[in-house]
Write a structure and sequence with these properties.
The complex is a heterodimer of chains A (312) and B (514). Chain A is an all-alpha fold and 312 residues long. Chain A is 71% helix and 0% strand. Chain A has one domain (3-297). Chain A is built from 13 helices and no strands. The longest helix of chain A is centred in the first third of the chain and has 33 residues, at 3-35. Chain A starts with a helix and ends in a 15-residue tail after the last helix. Chain B is α+β, with helices and mostly antiparallel strands and 514 residues long. Chain B has two domains: 25-344 and 409-479, no CATH class; 345-408, Dna Ligase, domain 1 (2-Layer Sandwich). Chain B has 17 helices and 25 strands. In chain B, a hairpin with a 5-residue loop joins strand 4 and strand 5 (157-163). Chain B is globular. Classes of the chains: A mainly alpha (312), B alpha+beta (514). At the A-B interface, helix 1, helix 4 and helix 5 of A face helix 2, helix 9, strand 7 and strand 9 of B.
């Protein structure tokens, strides 16, 4: 398939996942802040901004400007509205390969969003965030059910998976960096969309190593880092012209395998002791894989400008 | 209360009602069908339709804003006999223009025989020296064309202009029909309408037929300027319906006069490019050097015969409005036939004496720049202000070659849902023709564009016009009776089904179409 389309699909997957994950996270943090007066506004805003890696807007101590930056600002691809807008942009560029239903779902979301935003400004962001999660789930479902699971599909899933790994790492990082203002483990698990799955796995709740261990190492939970690494590797195998055999020289798969191996040999004590390094490793892995895939599959020239002969 | 149609005082030919206010026989059924709805019903359907279009992204970018392309609920009907004449006329015109383009960028017989002055062609803003001698293997230069027709005050169809470069609008024909059958299926039950969805297959066939010689299984792509082009939606639809890649300039590269596209599995050769990019932007080496949406080397690859550009380079000379005035002569000269469709009466200002005559009574003419498109720069004399007349007079006197003068034609009108009434609005018709080298096929239907402002005569979508679904009947309603419609048919399982004429018709026409 065209390199440009592959790239658009990859980023389409990433941006939809980004909107989804951000919505979950903001929802939990804001919910906790409203619920529990001991959580102060300033600290909540700061940790949200830190997790998402967004520069603090002026007046960052208050919730309103923070939400403006990380939720409603459609110019910022790290905000929810911005990620959806970027997803729309990529979908538009790849409109001939994504299914019409995906396109319609995304397009309808985009047209609906301003009305939801107006409502959210009056009544708080909960409905807006729920809407975003719902639409992202719908998009994922429609894509799964109506697109061929061919090459393009694997780029979409690869993008989604890498973003998910990255977001889990960021979320945990928020906990590591600033434990005092981070929400308790229950809220935290909810932000990762992992509360119920975690409870069912039968581990003690107030154990930091347990929660982090679950989010990093669980083999069945689709939002865990290890699950993501395995899934991403499957996608890379499908994408690669050489298939399963061509690992030599495939730097994207090298990076994935290295991270996966590191995770698989961890004990739960290791998770506690090395959490910070592990998170750094995961973030670096996501960047490396993205770069390697970009280099290898998303070939393009830089824009060329022409000069008249002798007109130097 | 049944539906009322506002009276037509425009003095133009009303397509639906005769001068006495009776529905024309072609529209009889439609008028009575429509009258079963209330205005509120129609409004509601129109809104639902608008929403579908917005969600599906059936839009046209208008002054930087993406809008749904307004589709009016009242369709236009063309009878089968009239259509036969129209499509013959369109096909004849395309054949003549093919011959002219081949001649103009080749031998130049018409110049030597005095049919058209050579200087006229070489001074056309769209004349492209680089196009000389570039010829597809099957000789076709006009794979796709859109010939704009208008109906004058006496009901006679005339050609308003020829679009042989990158005519757009066919996707709206397809989408309009899809939307109308979804939202307004009741109207179709009494009419046998030709389907329009065979267009992509025809186009794909014609593009493959134009492939370079010795390529047995050519790769076809659609080349788009990108998502910011007003017609991007159409490029997507065509690529998808033909099942080919939609590429941008940066997806292609030329090496050793061959064209490749960059894919995840390496470079793949490309043989036919249906380009929706103007000549100017196509190749920075031959045309505008500042084009970053084109592909360097494309023109040479085409000249070397390794890739076919559709439509061909340099077709713009045939869109030139002075050249337009010669098309009836081309038909007689190249084909030895009598033109089926008339032009609108046109004055060539560059001919001695004409410009002074026209300048003296500008209020009686429509003045058009020869290279304008999208209704740009047109001055309608009878409606222009004094200042506009003055500016125009100076412009045409300074550069007579740059303009033509035409007799004002009151475009025919059709009742259209505007605000809270159904009122007459001016319409034109753009049939689309596809030339595969063996014959010229005209899509039964075409785009009816409607000017939504009262009395407005410029219908272009870039001026905020709307469109109507255009029905070409496969049968005149007068003869549309019991004899043609079996009261029931047996399905293959032997159950009795009530046959609607529509079902019957679809089977009949789709069988005969391909």
């Amino acid at each position: 398939m065209l390199s440009r389309l592959a790239e658009s699909l990859f980023w389409l997957g990433r941006y939809i996942e980004r909107a989804d994950d951000t919505a979950r996270m903001v929802d939990t943090y804001v919910h906790r802040m409203v619920e529990d007066p001991r959580n102060d506004e300033r600290a909540t805003c700061q940790s949200l901004l830190a997790i998402l890696g967004v520069d603090a807007p002026s007046g960052a101590a208050r919730l309103e400007p923070t939400l403006q930056t990380i939720v409603y600002d459609s110019e910022n691809p790290n905000s929810i509205a911005g990620a959806l807008s970027a997803a729309h942009d990529n979908a538009r560029r790849s409109r001939d390969v994504i299914s019409s239903e995906v396109w319609v779902a995304l397009n309808a979301t985009r047209h609906e969003l301003p009305a939801r935003e107006a409502e959210a400004r009056l009544r708080g962001p909960a409905n807006y965030l729920a809407y975003v999660r719902e639409r992202c789930a719908l998009l994922a479902g429609v894509a799964d059910a109506t697109m061929s699971h061919d090459e393009g599909w694997h780029y979409l899933v690869l993008g989604r998976t890498l973003e998910r790994i990255d977001m889990v790492a960021r979320l945990l990082r928020g906990r590591v960096v600033n434990e005092r203002v981070a929400p308790d483990w229950v809220a935290f698990l909810r932000a990762a969309g992992a509360m119920e799955a975690y409870m069912r796995s039968g581990v003690e709740i107030h154990d930091a190593g347990g929660v982090a261990g679950f989010l990093l190492l669980d083999r069945n939970f689709p939002r865990s880092a290890l699950f993501g690494l395995l899934r991403a590797d499957e996608c890379l195998v499908e994408i690669s012209p050489g298939g399963q055999r061509a690992t030599a020289g495939d730097s994207a798969r090298h990076a994935l395998h290295r991270a996966r191996t590191t995770l698989e040999y961890l004990t739960s004590d290791d998770v506690n002791d090395q959490l910070s390094e592990l998170l750094t490793m995961l973030e670096v892995t996501c960047t490396r894989v993205t770069d390697a895939v970009t280099d290898r599959y998303f070939r393009h020239d830089d824009a060329v400008s022409w000069n008249w002969e002798g007109a130097l | 209360m049944s539906l009322r149609f506002a009276p037509d005082n425009s003095g133009a030919w009303n397509e639906m009602f005769s001068a006495s206010g009776e529905p024309r026989s072609l529209y009889g059924r439609l008028v009575s069908d429509l009258q079963e709805f209330t205005l509120a019903d129609l409004r509601e359907r129109a809104d639902a339709l608008q929403r579908t279009f917005l969600d599906r992204g059936v839009t046209f970018a208008h002054s930087g804003e993406e809008r749904p392309f307004p589709l009016d609920l009242v369709p236009r009907i063309i009878g089968s006999l009239e259509w036969e004449r129209l499509s013959q006329g369109v096909a004849q015109r395309v054949r003549a223009l093919e011959a002219f383009l081949d001649d103009a960028y080749g031998e130049g017989r018409a110049f030597d025989d005095g049919v058209i002055p050579r200087a006229l062609v070489t001074t056309s803003p769209h004349f492209l020296r680089a196009a000389f001698g570039v010829r597809a293997a099957n000789g076709v230069r006009v794979v796709v064309s859109g010939i704009d027709l208008v109906r004058d005050e006496t009901g006679n169809f005339r050609v308003l202009e020829d679009n042989l470069r990158t005519p757009s609008g066919v996707s709206y024909v397809i989408e309009n029909r899809r939307a109308m059958t979804q939202h307004f299926s009741a109207l179709f039950s009494d009419h046998r309408v030709h389907p329009v969805d065979s267009y992509p297959a025809r186009l794909y066939g014609a593009l493959r037929a134009a492939a370079p010689a010795r390529v047995s299984d050519p790769t076809v792509v659609v080349l788009t300027p990108g998502v910011h082009n007003p017609a991007y939606f159409e490029h997507v639809v065509l690529a998808r319906l033909m099942g080919v890649e939609l590429v941008e300039g940066r997806d292609l590269l030329c090496r050793a006069n061959r064209v490749y596209m960059r894919t995840t599995a390496g470079e793949r050769p490309v043989h036919v490019i249906y380009r929706r990019l103007d000549d100017d932007w196509l190749d920075p080496l031959q045309c505008r050097p500042d084009s970053i949406i084109g592909v360097a080397g494309l023109v040479n690859a085409a000249r070397a015969g390794n890739v076919t550009l559709a439509n061909a380079l340099g077709n713009g000379i045939a869109d030139d409005k002075v050249v337009y005035s010669y098309v009836p002569d081309f038909i007689r000269y190249y084909l030895g036939e009598k033109p089926v469709l008339d032009n609108v009466d046109t004055w060539r200002l560059f001919e001695p004496g004409v410009v002074d005559e026209v300048a003296a009574s500008l209020e009686e003419f429509v003045i058009k720049p020869v290279d304008g498109s999208g209704g740009k720069g047109i001055v309608i004399g009878p409606r222009a202000s004094k200042a506009e007349i003055e500016t125009t007079r100076r412009a045409i006197l300074a550069r007579p070659r740059g303009f033509i003068a035409q007799r004002p034609v009151a475009l025919s009108t059709l009742p259209t849902l505007v605000g809270d009434e159904i009122a007459p609005r001016h319409v034109d018709l753009r049939p689309f023709a596809v030339n595969d080298g063996r014959d010229v096929w005209v899509l039964p239907g075409g785009l009816t564009r409607v000017a939504l402002g009262e009395g407005e005569l410029i219908v272009n979508s870039s001026r905020g016009g709307g469109s109507k679904d255009t029905w070409v009947l496969s049968d005149e309603p007068a003869s549309f009776g019991q004899a043609h419609v079996p009261r029931s048919v047996r399905s293959s399982r032997g159950a009795r089904l009530d046959a609607s004429p529509r079902q019957n018709d679809e089977m009949a026409t789709s069988g005969g179409e391909q």
